[in-house]
Amino acid sequence: MIELGLPKRRADGTAGQQDRLREVPAAANDAEALPDLRVGIGTTMIEPAFTGGHLDGIGVYTQALLRHLPRAGCTMQPYSWPRLRSSGVVSAGEALPHSFERASFVDLVTPNGHRVHMPVDVFHVTDYRVVRMDCPVVASLHDALPVKHPEWCNPRLRGLKNWLQRKAAQKADHVIALSHFAIDELVGCFGIDERRITVVPCGVDDEWLDPPPAHAVAMTLQANGLRPGYFLFVGTLQPRKNVERLLDAYLSLPAAVRAERQLVIVGSAGARSEKILRRIAAAVQDGANVVWLNHLTDNTELRHVYAGAGVFVFASLYEGFGIPVVEAFASGVPVVASNTTSLPEVTAGAALDVDPLDTGAIADAMLTLARESAARARCITAGRARAAQLTWNATGRLTAAVYRSLL
Questions:
Q1: Cα(296)–Cα(292) distance, rounded to whole angstroms?
Q2: Same domain for 245 and 193
Q3: Could you tell me if 210 and 199 lie in one domain?
Q4: Average pLDDT per run of 10 along the chain, which is 407 residues long?
Q5: DSSP string, 141-169
Q6: Of 9, 102, 180, 231, which sees the most CB atoms within 10 A?
């Protein structure tokens, strides 16, 4: 099994300190000596006509692979499924000849025959849209959220997503998980043979490890009404992100702290977000020093917003990985993170880990990193070291090694 930078968990579910560092397998570093691979990749999750420019974690992951796999000896050929009923034009990838719905129906009624012809050596699906092809298929399955926590998902799509993910797990020749936690979820919920799963974690671009120009950061902050030193959250607004408890924790802080430090929430509305949107709107209207940026889609501006933060807070209830944590680490921002699901693997001791169900614990950790210089310095140093272990460049090399293992 290929691993990079993610410590295996002990029996109590936490990451062992001694297991933090993993060496990149030699084969993953030798792409220059190997022939190029033609890699098809699904790009439906980054189609502007379908996403409106707001990318979730899968979209960020897909874009990162497109940028970094060429460095690992892969010639990328992006493909997108056209919508069954949509006038939106496919532009991020070449349009496949039929919608995913139609291709899935053909796949279903011809279980032992039809395979979609693809002029590539391997095809990588970064979401659940898997059909049988005449080349090896690799699927990145990020978590089992709709199965484990249906109460957090769109009920209209939950049954369909569960079925599609089970089918994806069955059809894929190999599965990439983003954490050891995710392996347990995929095996338990989808019945995947663990021998068909490889752990390849996410990361950040190398440029994130260097501070952006101070004048550019100042301009972005000014344009968005932000004052440096704020508490920051980044992520799609949905119940599992636990933004309500974050808001409660912030509102419980001393008035002087709240006056000095805004709470900045960056992210678009997701499924079942109506309640938290009402809470955010009420806080803004009441002058609670809360700012919601739901329009921030430019990656450079996002880096600037991270760079201006004083404390990053990610008290999520469930994550298959948690890319924003690594982005905050790389930006030199001390992090408060949940002690659940995959996040202890990702933070590896570099954050203040808290029980995400304990609003008081979240508030105490926020206050510690806002006021205690020694704790801030320790988390900033450890976080930057952790981010240096988790880069998209390394993700690309390891992903290419998975492809080559199937040929």
A1: 10
A2: no
A3: no
A4: 48 38 40 79 92 84 97 97 79 92 85 85 94 95 80 71 77 94 90 93 96 97 98 95 98 97 95 93 94 91 98 97 97 98 97 98 98 98 98 97 96
A5: ----HHHH-GGGS-HHHHHHHHHHHHHHH
A6: 231
Angle between helices 243-251 and 274-285 (to 10 degrees): 20
Say if residue 150 is in the same domain as residue 224.
no
CB 193, CB 388: distance < 8 Å:
no
CA distance 237 to 246: 12
Instruction: Tell me the H-state helices in 227-372.
Output: 243-251, 255-260, 274-285, 299-307, 323-330, 343-347, 359-371
pTM for the model:
0.89
pLDDT for the residue numbered 151: 77
Q: Which helix (H) or strand (E) holds 79?
A: strand 74-80
Residue 32 confidence (pLDDT): 56
* Helix, strand, coil abundance in the chain, percent, nearest 5: 45, 15, 35
Domain that holds residue 245: 206-389
Report yes or no: 363 and 311 within 8 Å, Cβ to Cβ: no
Does one domain contain both 198 and 299? no
- Give residue 158's pLDDT: 66
- CB under 8 A, 24+ apart: contacts of 112-116: none
- If one counts the domains in the chain, the total is 2
β-bridge pairing 174-177 and 197-199: parallel
